[in-house]
Design brief:
There is one protein chain. The protein is an alpha+beta fold. It has 5 helices and 10 strands, in the order E-E-H-E-E-H-E-E-H-E-E-E-E-H-H. The protein has one domain. The strands form 3 sheets. It has a 6-stranded antiparallel β-sheet, with helices on one face. Strand 5 and strand 6 form a beta hairpin.
């Protein structure tokens, strides 16, 4: 695998996760996944994976080769370990088939959580069943948006599109014209 992942603006490789019936589901950036209700029921019926909470409220699920597929029923999985709903969406990462990382977008820790999740996901890319090293913002409607990229040893978190809109609505970033001009000057 290359040490550099394309930035979110470049064409993206779809993310493929295993399903209980032996098939797989393809997650495409910008498209809410459509999955048969029977498959979702099978995912929900699986035994609960191991769960830990890391820094910045990152939920780490691990277990069998179907753990990553649970990204399709992630709200149900998160509800088993976290009693608060996530009305602003989720950050998700599927580093390999046996792991799933989730962070509910609720507060100022969201960017730190994204960085941590991307770092963990990148470290797991040496696994035989590696899937993807990036983090996705999963909007409340289920539409995924790739928000990280890897450049050499650095993780880049891209705050744009629906993810930026959500953070602005939460008061975590300023998307005003004045703030954009200041940011542009700071880059020079």
């Amino acid at each position: 695998m290359s040490s550099e992942t394309p930035s979110p603006e470049q064409p993206q490789t779809p993310v493929v996760v295993p399903l209980p019936d032996g098939s797989s589901a393809t997650l495409r950036v910008g498209e809410a996944p459509t999955v048969d209700e029977t498959v979702l029921a099978a995912l929900r019926a699986l035994p609960a994976p191991e769960h830990q909470v890391a820094s910045f409220a990152v939920h780490a699920f691990s277990g069998d080769s179907l753990t990553a597929g649970r990204v399709l029923a992630v709200e149900d999985l998160l509800a088993t370990v976290d009693d608060e709903p996530a009305p602003h969406g989720l950050l998700v990462a599927v580093p390999d088939a046996r792991s799933l990382l989730v962070h509910a977008v609720r507060d100022e820790h969201v960017l730190r959580a994204a960085h941590l999740m991307a770092t963990i996901a990148r470290l797991r890319q040496g696994e035989a069943d590696a899937i993807d090293a990036d983090v996705f913002y999963r909007a409340p409607d289920g539409t995924p948006q790739r928000i990280t990229a890897h450049a050499d040893a650095e993780v880049e978190v891209h705050v744009e599109g629906a993810f930026a809109d959500t953070l602005a609505a939460m008061g975590l970033i300023d998307r005003s014209r004045r703030a954009r001009r200041a940011a542009k000057r700071a880059k020079r």
